[in-house]
Amino acid sequence: MLKLEAIKTYYGNIQALKGVSLEVQTGEIITLIGANGAGKTTTLMSISGIVPPRTGEIYFMGKPISRVNPDKIVAMGISQVPEGRRIFPYLSVLENLDMGAFLRKDKRDIQADLDYVFSLFPILAERRNQAGGTLSGGEQQMLAISRALMARPRLLLLDEPSLGLAPLIVKQIFEIIKKINRENNTTIFLVEQNANLALKVAHRGYVMENGKITLADSAESLLANEAVKKAYLGI
Ligand code: ATP
C-alpha cells in the first residue's frame, strides 16, 4: 500500500532523513520506533506531503506522491494525527470533527462516520458542544484521532499518541487503535517513543537511528531482540 524508496528529507541545510526505505501492506499496523530526534516525525511529514523529500520517492497505492500537495494526499486516503494533537481549541468537538471531513461531499456517509467515531469514543458524543480546548489531554487525543478518521483514511498516520497521557488512558486509546485496524481494515502507521507499547499492538516494526532505518522485523522479534531491549525497552 505504501512504499518509501530511499527518501532524503531536509530542513534547509539540515538533513533529517538519510535514505529511508520501508513498506506497509494493507491492513497492517506498523510502528516506527527510535530515540528523540531520530527522524520519526519527519518520516510522517514526508508521507503526508508537509515536508516532502528532496530525493527518493513515496508510492501510495502504486502512485508516486512525493510531489503531491498535502490536501490531495488526504483526499487520496492518508490522514495524519499530529504529535501534540493540534485540535482547534476554540471550536467545539463537533466543529473539530467537521474540519476532518472538509474535503468530503458525501453528507450521508459523513453522518455515519460521525456516529462511528462517537461509538468508539462515547465521551466525545457527550461533549460534542464543548470547546476542544476544555477537554482533558486524553480526550483531545481521542478527538484528534476521530478528526483524522472523519476523512475516511485508508492509511492512518499516528504521531506519538501516548505522549503525556496517563497509563490507563493510553491503554484505552491503544485498544481503540487496534479496533479501528480490525473493524475497518484501516492500515496504521504508528510512531512511538514508547516502544514497548507500540510493539505490543503492531504487526511489524522498524527501528530508526539518526535518519536511517537500522532494523526491520516482526513486532514479536523486535520485542525479543537484545539490542532493542537494551536501547528502547529499558530492559
Ligand atoms: P521526536 O520524538 O523528538 O519528535 P523524531 O524521531 O520524530 O523525534 P524528528 O522530529 O523527525 O525526530 O527530527 C529529526 C531531525 O530533524 C532532528 O535532528 C531534528 O532536530 C531535526 N528537525 C526536526 N524538525 C526540524 C525543523 N523544523 N527545523 C530544523 N530541524 C528540524
TrEMBL record:
Keyword Ribonucleoprotein: no
Domain ABC transporter per the UniProt entry, residue ranges: 2-235
Organism: Desulfosarcina ovata subsp. ovata
Protein name: ABC transporter ATP-binding protein
Keywords: Amino-acid transport, ATP-binding, Nucleotide-binding, Transport
Cell wall biogenesis/degradation in keyword set: no
Pfam families, alphabetized: ABC_tran
Biological-process GO terms, alphabetical: L-amino acid transport
SUPFAM superfamilies named in the record: P-loop containing nucleoside triphosphate hydrolases
Single Gene Ontology MF annotation: ATP hydrolysis activity
Family as reported in the entry's similarity comment: Belongs to the ABC transporter superfamily.
InterPro entries per UniProt: AAA+_ATPase, ABC_branched_ATPase_LivF/BraG, ABC_transporter-like_ATP-bd, ABC_transporter-like_CS, BCAA_Transport_ATP-bd_LivF, P-loop_NTPase
Source superkingdom: Bacteria
PANTHER family assigned: HIGH-AFFINITY BRANCHED-CHAIN AMINO ACID TRANSPORT ATP-BINDING PROTEIN LIVF (PTHR43820:SF4)
